[in-house]
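re the bet — no i am not wrong, look at it urself. input seq straight from the record:
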Amino acid sequence: MTTIKNIVLVHGAFSDGSGYRGMYDALTKQGFKVTIVQNPLTSLKDDATATTVVLDNQDGPTILAGHSWGGAVITEAGNHPNVAALVYIAAFQPDTGESALQWFRSAPPAPENGIQAPNEKGIVYYAKETFHAGFCADIPAEDAAFMYASQGAFYAQCFVTPITEAAWRHKPSYGIIATEDKSILPEIQRNMYARSNTKTIDLKASHALHISQPQAVADFIVQVAAELSGK
């Protein structure tokens, strides 16, 4: 079997690629080549295109991982021939013809959830008063304040656009369920991943598990790489 050394990380809404710094450090120390996609968050098509550009530049089989909204992006872009497997990090996993919003609405939201309705420009923001508790309760308050200030604009059309061809139907899929998640409820994650027969682990963490527990998430990806490489 071919040894997998390439990892591409896709961020979600209300955050950017810098949130993967801890995972980048953990993975590169183990010899992996890590590339981080900077999604424009303007549409599913635009985010999938940004991911495809990065995948085109990989020199071999690649693990494609996505957090939150990034799960929908890797589901759309993951049919790329360089993708050996998909990893969902507390992430949406719609099927062909489904949108992320369908799954978001499949259970009543947590009281801490601060995802607001789109504004007059069709942009969705996470509310300041619930950002820490609802998005990243297990990181320091000062870090949460910076994340809120740098969340950027997430266009609502991303959420409502259906997947054209779900990559998890053709590629091995793995997932991490954040058991303390208040943004994508754990029961929603379990339901998505059970439907697709995704191999999962539980991690006691908030929605921002890639930031609060980067080593644990990185370790899971290392295990996936080892499994795929036959080690």
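see?? The mean pLDDT is 97. told u. also The first strand starts at residue 6 and ends at 10. so pay up
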